[in-house]
Task: inverse folding
């Protein structure tokens, strides 16, 4: 009835169904947008594409998402709203149909050292609940399940295990109170009506009512108080009498009693949660939380690691056997006695000392570290060394092996020890946390539970399985649940956020995504596209900023912003379907239809016949790899997500070279040897980390072009009259800058329970400088005007000032001409930051042989920009350098001189070399996913 009324009201009002009403944006002028009008269909997937810097993010994030967020904040408390008047509204004439908006950006989700994949996705929280509800506590002594006994369970056991007529006693232990002697205890028992004690070994009965019982002769361990003597009979009267006696025994024995079979064993029972003389904690969700003082391991405080001895330094090569010297501290003359002791113990217990260390079982490794018989063990050995730290040589020896090791108490599982006694399907929560998402999904799908457990855990299991399914589907099956969130790449954390959004099953929302295909191999793109489609199908509007051809093809609607970057962009080039886009005159349309393309090089470079060789790389999932990196070439390292590319290139090769050059103090990935370093002079990692930590850092200061600009302003006639130095034109030091915002142009307001809000400085109006300094002009522009120029504009403006143009030209060459000189480094995307660094290296003159590392440099790049980027790489290689790139983009891969393909899968199933050689050779390899996709483009 109510529904019918609602319909008629809507008809009366004549309002169209909100589901059909599109999102309308009219007159958007944020950043470089040129007063554009856009219509985005609701409950559809729209892709916004266009060259880098054309204004895609300005439309998607700074206009549509910002307004959605602003309208949400408007509904909050008056405390939050007092800042709203100062919170800029996007510069737009009119917006309609905006739903509550959610942005999924490429920012690493967490800097919290305790945060893991399991906690960020809430899977671990549901696991804690599951273990608290249906976990079985297993005694570490006997391996039996701990439980509470009741009168009912005792009777059931008695009737199940013993036949009719079996005679038995019902007993309880003599109570012991600290302040009372045995004599007093016996007196109290007599007063309560208990008159007999049973001696356990010979079933001799002592009558406490006679005077010949000497309390000093009674050992409380050997005697029990008798409650009743009975025989097993199934009739109701006997059952009732047994139950009554048991209840008395439990009550008087403070929760403990026992049955003694005539001439047989004693069966102890307890109403407490105990077994084998140990009292256990009853499972609760807090008990499994390493973020909670109650559940965290006391030794490592929930981090899983303690500072001590680093296993990787003690066993530098896990492929070696113990006999061959796997244990580094025992391989010298001084401590070789320990190795001899270990070999003796190994012979005695048949320990496999001729097996590589990495293949040894947990039990054998435990003996190595904890010791056995005359062999002291590595931990006690280092404790002894530490105790002699007053001797200099012992201090030096100890420091050689110091680092972080797994916490010995919780074994690195982070939770209190008794939480690890609780198991579900024979696995404790720590072991499940070490599983990859793929394995965990299998484990939870195939749980064997009783009907009662199924009923209790039904909803919790549904939530866990749903989240694991989404994580698996977005291509993250290789991540372990306990992987730290701050070690994830931008693409990985973005896909985790995406899976979280799906897990929360919101509908009627607007999702704005920033290049979700980053870090994904073409093989995994289809899975991601299916996920976004399912987000759309449950009733959400999905808006994606993207360059990937597959994603563009899958969209219901495409908006192409351009035609070029910066001031030459900001217009709507095209809006419509994929088929129409192919026929359009836009750059995107030309590349997608094949009318324009990035050419395959006519011939591959031969290199300089020298190479860097890495041997025995075993970090994370690498399977003892030996890899040659030929110098003087453009090398691409490819493979599906999680196959081990970053581990090989970042953690092992780059870190290893840096360590040898003495400029690296962090941990290096495990490997046996690294040779050929005499063939290079220096090494540079051009990754996606920000170009400056402070918001004051910008492209002008980073490329040092700002030095030339400040000198120009200081040399003007006006500056000379006022006595200004170049320092007056710096916003980093006091002098000419606005002191209210200290040259930032903005002020941060800290909001309780919400993200901080940045507001324009009221004193300088965001111009960063004092008014008198802004009056100094060069060719009609003040220093603020110059910082507002894009790189392309600045090149025209300073055309005859080579000290400035030489620094800025490389930025134009790598496709960053649209960036403003004064744009804060913290607002640059990862891909932009990486290309700013590339520009800095391009501006250096050719000389020494440098080895350059790039990590997915095509992030955020349109086809047109990738062509420019490849020209820059070729320029570096032609100048005699070597470039190594981790990449998934086929346009870059097809232009490489040499490919190293790792895989075949992610996680445990990866870490092998699938193929090495030219793109033409890789595409012939059957099991190479990269080769399969290369066939299409070559």
Result:
């Amino acid at each position: 009835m109510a529904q019918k009324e609602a319909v008629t009201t809507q008809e009366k009002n004549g309002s169209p169904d909100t589901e059909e009403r599109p999102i309308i944006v009219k007159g958007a002028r944020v950043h470089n947008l040129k007063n554009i009008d856009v219509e985005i269909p609701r409950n559809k997937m729209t892709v916004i594409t266009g060259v880098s810097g054309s204004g895609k993010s300005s439309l998607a994030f700074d206009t549509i998402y910002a307004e959605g967020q602003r309208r949400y904040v408007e509904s909050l408390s008056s405390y939050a709203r007092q800042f709203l008047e100062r919170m800029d509204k996007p510069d737009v004439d009119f917006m309609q149909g905006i739903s509550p908006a959610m942005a999924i950006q490429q920012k690493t989700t967490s800097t919290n050292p305790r945060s893991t994949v399991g906690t960020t996705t809430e899977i671990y929280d549901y696991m804690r609940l599951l273990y608290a509800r249906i976990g079985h506590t297993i005694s570490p002594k006997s391996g039996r399940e701990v439980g509470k006994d009741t009168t009912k369970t005792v009777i059931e056991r008695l009737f199940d295990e013993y036949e009719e007529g079996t005679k038995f006693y019902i007993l309880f232990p003599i109570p012991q109170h600290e302040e009372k002697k045995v004599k007093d205890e016996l007196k109290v028992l007599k007063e309560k009506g208990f008159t007999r004690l049973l001696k356990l070994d010979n079933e001799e009965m002592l009558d406490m009512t006679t005077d010949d019982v000497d309390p000093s002769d009674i050992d409380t361990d050997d005697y029990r108080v008798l409650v009743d003597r009975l025989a097993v009979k199934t009739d109701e009267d006997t059952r009732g009498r047994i139950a009554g006696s048991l209840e008395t025994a439990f009550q008087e024995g403070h929760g403990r009693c026992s049955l003694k079979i005539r001439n047989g064993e004693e069966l102890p029972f307890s109403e407490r949660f105990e077994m084998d003389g140990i009292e256990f904690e009853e499972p609760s969700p807090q008990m499994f939380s390493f973020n909670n003082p109650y559940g965290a391991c006391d030794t490592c405080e929930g981090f899983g690691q303690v500072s001590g001895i680093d296993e990787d330094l003690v066993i530098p090569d896990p492929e070696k056997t113990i006999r061959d010297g796997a244990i580094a501290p025992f391989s010298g003359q001084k401590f070789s006695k320990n190795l001899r002791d270990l070999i003796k113990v190994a012979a005695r217990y048949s320990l496999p000392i001729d097996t590589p260390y990495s293949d040894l079982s947990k039990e054998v490794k435990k003996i190595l570290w904890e010791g056995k018989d005359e062999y002291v063990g590595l931990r006690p050995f280092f404790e002894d060394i530490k105790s002699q730290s007053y001797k200099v040589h012992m201090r030096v020896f100890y420091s050689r092996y110091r680092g972080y090791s797994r916490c010995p108490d919780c074994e690195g599982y982070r939770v209190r020890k008794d939480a690890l006694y609780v198991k579900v399907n024979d696995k404790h929560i720590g072991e499940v946390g070490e599983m990859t998402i793929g394995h965990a999904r299998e484990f939870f799908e195939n749980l064997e539970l009783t009907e009662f457990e199924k009923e209790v855990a039904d909803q919790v299991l549904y939530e866990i399985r749903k989240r694991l399914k989404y994580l698996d589907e977005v291509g993250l099956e290789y991540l372990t649940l306990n992987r730290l969130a701050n070690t994830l790449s931008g693409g990985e954390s973005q896909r985790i956020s995406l899976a979280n959004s799906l897990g929360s099953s919101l509908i009627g929302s607007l999702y704005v995504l920033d290049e979700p295909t980053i870090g994904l191999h073409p093989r995994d793109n289809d899975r991601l596209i299916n996920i976004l489609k399912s987000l759309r199908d449950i009733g959400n509007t999905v808006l994606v900023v993207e360059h990937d051809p597959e994603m563009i093809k899958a969209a219901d609607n495409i908006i192409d912003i351009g035609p070029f970057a910066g001031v030459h962009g900001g217009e709507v080039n095209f809006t419509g379907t994929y088929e129409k886009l192919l026929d359009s005159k836009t750059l995107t349309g030309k590349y997608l239809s094949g009318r324009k393309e990035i050419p395959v090089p006519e011939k591959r470079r031969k290199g300089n016949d020298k190479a860097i060789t890495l041997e025995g790389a075993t970090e994370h999932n690498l399977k003892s790899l030996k890899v040659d990196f030929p110098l003087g070439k453009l090398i691409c390292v490819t493979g599906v997500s999680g196959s081990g590319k970053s581990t090989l290139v970042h953690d092992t090769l780059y870190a290893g070279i840096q360590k040898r050059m003495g400029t690296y103090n962090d941990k290096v990935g495990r490997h046996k040897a690294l040779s050929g370093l005499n063939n290079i002079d220096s090494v540079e990692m051009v990754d996606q980390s920000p170009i400056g930590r402070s918001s004051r850092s910008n492209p002008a200061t980073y490329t040092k072009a700002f030095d030339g600009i400040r000198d120009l302003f200081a040399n003007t006639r006006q500056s000379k009259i006022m006595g200004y130095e170049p320092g007056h034109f710096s916003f980093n030091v006091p002098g000419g800058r606005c002191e209210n915002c200290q040259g930032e142009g903005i002020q941060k307001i800290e909001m309780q329970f919400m993200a901080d809000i940045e507001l324009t400085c009221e004193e300088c109006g965001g111009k960063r400088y004092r008014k008198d300094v802004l009056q100094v002009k060069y060719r009609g522009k003040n220093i603020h005007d110059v910082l507002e120029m894009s790189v392309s504009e600045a090149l025209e403006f300073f055309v005859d000032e080579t000290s400035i143009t030489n620094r800025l030209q490389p930025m134009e060459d790598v496709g960053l001409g649209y960036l403003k000189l004064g744009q804060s480094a913290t607002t640059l995307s990862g891909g932009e930051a990486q290309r700013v660094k590339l520009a800095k290296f391009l501006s250096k003159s050719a000389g020494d042989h440098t080895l350059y590392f790039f990590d997915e440099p095509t992030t955020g790049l349109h086809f047109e920009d990738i062509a420019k980027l490849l020209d820059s790489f070729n320029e570096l290689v032609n100048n005699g350098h070597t470039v190594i790139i981790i990449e998934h983009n086929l346009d870059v891969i097809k232009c490489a001189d040499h490919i190293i393909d790792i895989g075949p899968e992610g996680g445990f199933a990866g870490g092998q070399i699938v193929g090495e050689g030219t793109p033409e050779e890789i595409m012939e390899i059957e099991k190479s996913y990269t080769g399969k996709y290369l066939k299409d483009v070559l």
